[in-house]
Specification:
Elements: H1 3-7, E1 16-17, H2 22-25, E2 38-40, E3 43-44, H3 49-58, H4 60-76, E4 80-82, E5 91-93, E6 101-103, H5 105-129, H6 134-137, H7 143-147, E7 169-176, E8 182-188, H8 195-208, H9 210-213, H10 222-234, E9 245-248, H11 257-266, E10 270-272, E11 277-280, E12 283-288, E13 291-294, E14 297-300, H12 323-328, E15 333-335, H13 352-360, E16 371-373, H14 377-385, E17 391-394, E18 401-403, H15 409-421, E19 426-429, E20 436-441, E21 444-459, E22 462-465, E23 470-473, E24 489-495, H16 525-561, H17 567-574, H18 586-602, H19 610-623, H20 630-644, H21 652-676, H22 681-708, H23 714-723, H24 727-734, H25 740-749, H26 757-770, H27 782-796, H28 799-802, H29 814-828, H30 830-839
Parallel strand pairs: 6-24, 9-10, 9-14, 14-15
Antiparallel strand pairs: 1-3, 2-3, 4-5, 7-8, 7-21, 11-12, 12-13, 16-19, 17-18, 17-19, 20-21, 21-22, 21-23, 23-24
């Protein structure tokens, strides 16, 4: 379908009959409900006509192909949503339906006015509840409903300086009922997630379906995010010209951590966790390699109670002790302010019309779902009398809900008792069928219930509404399951405009002077730590895969040619897995050895398995998402897909071929980081981690080959040269049988060989010498001294005294053992030295006692 045709995708004077083509002909519409695409069975709503024609032009098969492309792009980009009760694993890929949800501009204007008013109402209510509390004193709101809710935080009373807004960001869950009216299902003020996913949905679908999106007459999203960034910058009181704004995240274990990293990158914010921040002299500071850097504004994604263990939840390790006091003094601005979670209380619904009239002098434009609060006798009586017709919910965050019609007699009786015992903790709502919207399933369009989330951001003296938002559809027709936690999928939500809108990007030419900076000592200590371990895990994954590949190769040679398999015992030793006992037959031994090697691919219980090592790589990679290039991030996600796609039953040959793929991916990942990451402090820690891991592994393999092997000799020497990727270099250089002196020179002393200990120590010495020392001492740091000790030992060693082995002897020199130990010992302490001097910039919070109110 052409862009011109899609440009006509706006409200027409009359509805048209549904085309009879295959894709839309069988689309079912319930006569009693509301469908977003069809006004009646077989009749399209006017603003859907052009879209329906475009979809028909593509056809079901092509749409399925594009849908698969959408999911591939999301998977490659690492778009995830963590659902910890998902049997498929906590980190599942973000799912997006390719068919957008359409809304006319006229309808949107009305809805946006309601969302904007609701944000003003919630802000006014927060101002009142944490100051004069007229709403309670005048009887507009029951005191019990407020004070019994954990979202009301008494320490936050009058904690916001004059002139500051309580509510900067507001998320609203809403849906259309059978009568076509939108009603609010919930408010999100603590951590209103979804805006980043909304933008990612739009970008990804535009890549997969460019003909639909390029000239489509829809309102763009980027201007809303531009307002968000300007609003955050404008909140700063201390540095209005160049404010330091951070996004406070709970960390990679958050269900929406992808969005935290995505928004931080898109809005040019520092992504931090609680342990990165510290309060000194009532100011909030970011702990960096170069010291403490002041923070002006915090866009927080940590729940209210967890933000300050000093005044709020004493058990929290996610927050910053003293944060509330810093905010109270006006030294830092939080978006949103602590205490805002009280307006997420679902029991407020019945009282909002009155509150809107009293606080704003306006009638409520956007109604809530009909709600009865059991704390009022009349409402409680109605609920108990009509329990089978209602859905009962706890007002507590994350509380359960009960569908009355599905309760057994015992459960029914138990629920009544609970309501009567604590009526103020329960509400009831009349279940209302959600409107349906088309989703693509097996090449055909199928209606599914849809829930929307709108987003509002403060600007100047009012609020601005995102044109569209996040649409979520359930995987079935159960309207209570339109949730991403329940396995639902998301959709792009279009707001149609009269004409195509210009594209807006946050990347614009700057006007006026700019301070030129480079990456340096402003790197957070936690990020440096994770980059160091990212390098270690990457090299560890490479080394383990090489060991496994060689072990499987030797196993296959033994099976096919009946060659000597004794070096397998030493390879098992290097892999830190026990050698299986002698079997009854060679065939039985082969299967036992093979199974143990295959288990090392995916055995999460083994600390040295590929799965365990990759989990560490993934964890540290996600923690430093903003410091990785896009291509490196995609390679990390391809590695994750490689792990997830490993077949359950593998032959040794298949496993070896798959390991070849994995080695290429790991090499590409490390190589891209080396080529694209600026070679400043962050890259230095990444590279130090890589080469520390490599030198320790090389020393262990060398020691195995010449000192500790069960079956030393030429076969094992060849294996070690292969694993360290030195066999080709050896043959090119010597073109002869293996000789211990030549092997020692190549693996230990050749400082021009990247796989030698000498080269690796020189690289470590150079990079550690470039690190910025926190104390500014003119003397060598502890880590510099450790590397110098190891390097000096190697450079002062006499290869003649070490290489007492001849080509037909397996005895090692005691001097070789001494030298290897003298190199290994200081390197073993290097990680701890780096942690002490760079990664433990300030004390990490730890709970010493349990605090209870």
């Amino acid at each position: 379908m052409s862009g011109a045709a899609l440009a006509s995708c706006r409200e027409e004077p009359e509805a048209l009959e549904l085309p009879s083509e295959k894709l839309l002909a069988s689309y079912p519409v319930a006569e009693s409900g509301y469908d977003e695409m069809c006004s009646a069975p077989g009749v399209l709503r006017p603003h859907w006509v052009a879209m329906a024609q475009a979809l028909e032009a593509l056809g079901g098969d092509e749409l399925e192909r594009r849908h698969n492309e959408v999911q591939r792009l999301l998977q490659t980009d690492g778009v995830t949503y963590n659902t910890y009760d998902d049997p498929k694993g906590p980190q599942r890929h973000w799912l997006v339906d390719p068919i957008p949800l359409l809304m006319t501009g006229e309808e949107w204007t009305t809805l946006a006015e309601g969302l904007e008013q609701r944000a003003r109402l919630m802000n006014a209510l927060l101002v009142d509840l944490y100051d004069r509390r007229l709403a309670i004193r005048q009887g507009w709101l029951p005191a019990e409903l407020v004070y019994a809710h954990p979202g009301f935080l008494h320490p936050c009373h009058r904690s916001l300086p004059d002139g500051n807004r309580w509510l900067i960001f507001h998320g609203v869950d809403l849906a259309r009922g059978p009568d076509g009216v939108f009603r609010v299902y919930g408010d999100r003020t603590q951590s209103p997630s979804g805006a980043g996913y909304t933008l990612e949905n739009r970008i990804t679908l535009a890549r997969a379906l460019p003909m639909l999106y390029r000239d489509a007459p829809l309102l763009r999203l980027a201007s809303f995010l531009e307002t968000e960034r300007a609003t955050l910058a404008g909140l700063s009181r201390h540095h209005p010209e160049n404010p330091h704004v951070v996004l406070l995240s709970p960390g990679p274990n958050s269900p929406v951590y992808f969005e935290h990293a995505y928004l931080a990158n898109y809005l040019s914010l520092s992504l931090v966790e609680g342990e990165d921040l510290v309060v000194r002299d009532s100011r909030v500071w970011l702990k960096t390699l170069g010291g403490l850097r002041p923070v002006d504004v915090i866009l927080r994604r940590v729940l209210d109670a967890f933000c300050d263990p000093l005044e709020l939840d004493g058990d929290s390790l996610l927050g910053v002790p003293g944060l509330l006091q810093a905010a109270r003094g006006g030294h830092v601005v939080l978006a949103n302010a602590l205490g805002s979670s009280i307006v997420e209380n679902p029991g407020l619904g019945p009282f909002l019309p009155l509150l809107c009239r009293q606080l704003l002098g306006e009638d409520l434009k956007l109604p809530s779902l009909p709600t009865w609060w059991c704390g009022q006798p009349d409402d409680k009586g109605y609920v108990l009398a009509h329990l089978d017709e209602l859905v009962v919910r706890s007002i507590l965050p994350g509380g359960p809900y009960w569908e009355g019609r599905k309760l057994s007699q015992d459960a029914h009786t138990e629920l009544i008792k609970r309501i009567q015992d604590q009526p103020h903790l329960f509400i009831a709502q009349a279940p209302s069928p959600l409107s349906t919207t088309p989703v693509l399933e097996d090449g055909r369009l199928t209606p599914r219930p849809v829930m929307l989330r709108g987003f509002v951001v403060a600007e100047d003296d009012g609020y601005r509404v995102m044109p569209g938002g996040l649409a979520r559809v359930s995987s079935g027709m159960d309207t209570l399951q339109a949730s991403l936690q329940k396995g639902g999928i998301s959709k792009d939500w279009w707001v149609l405009a009269p004409t195509p809108q210009r594209h807006v990007s946050l990347l614009r030419q700057a006007h006026g002077p700019i301070i030129v900076t480079r990456d340096g000592d402003d790197l957070p200590s936690r990020v440096a730590d994770n980059l160091f371990w990212l390098g270690r895990y990457g090299e560890r994954l490479d080394g383990t895969a090489r060991l496994l590949r060689e072990a499987l190769g030797r196993l296959l040679e033994w099976e096919q040619d009946n060659t000597d398999e004794r070096c397998l015992d030493d390879l098992f030793e290097a892999l830190e897995i026990p050698v299986p006992p002698v079997a009854e037959s060679p065939r039985a031994r082969f299967f036992a050895l093979r199974q143990m090697l295959l288990n090392l691919l995916v055995d999460v219980e083994h600390p040295g398995s590929l799965q365990t090592i990759f989990n560490g790589l993934s964890r540290t990679g996600r923690a430093v998402r903003n410091h990785l290039g896009d291509d490196s991030w995609r390679l990390l996600n391809r590695l994750q897909q490689w792990i997830q796609d490993l077949p359950a039953n593998l032959s040794a040959r298949q496993a070896r071929e798959l390991l070849e793929e994995e080695l290429v991916l790991v090499a590409a990942f490390c190589g891209l980081n080396n080529e694209t990451m600026p070679h400043h402090q962050g890259w230095l820690f990444f590279d130090i981690g890589r080469y520390l891991e490599r030198v320790l592994r090389t020393l262990d393999l060398f020691k195995l080959a010449f000192i500790t092997a069960r079956h030393p000799g030429v076969p094992l020497w060849e294996v070690v040269l292969t694993i360290t990727d030195n066999l080709t270099a050896y043959r090119r250089r010597y073109r002869s049988a293996l000789h211990p002196t030549a092997i020692m020179d190549l693996l230990l002393f050749d400082e021009g060989n990247p796989r030698s200990v000498g080269y690796q120590l020189l690289r470590l010495q150079r990079n550690i010498g470039r690190l910025q020392q926190p104390n500014g001492s003119p003397y060598r740091s502890a880590e510099e001294r450790l590397v110098l000790e190891a390097l000096s030992t190697l450079q002062l060693a006499d290869i003649g005294a070490l290489a007492t082995l001849s080509h037909d002897s397996t005895r090692s020199s005691p001097e070789l053992t001494r030298v290897l130990d003298a190199i290994h010992t200081p390197l073993s302490g290097l990680s701890d030295a780096l942690t002490h001097s760079h990664f433990s910039h300030a004390e990490v919070a730890q709970q010493l006692i349990t605090m209870r109110p």
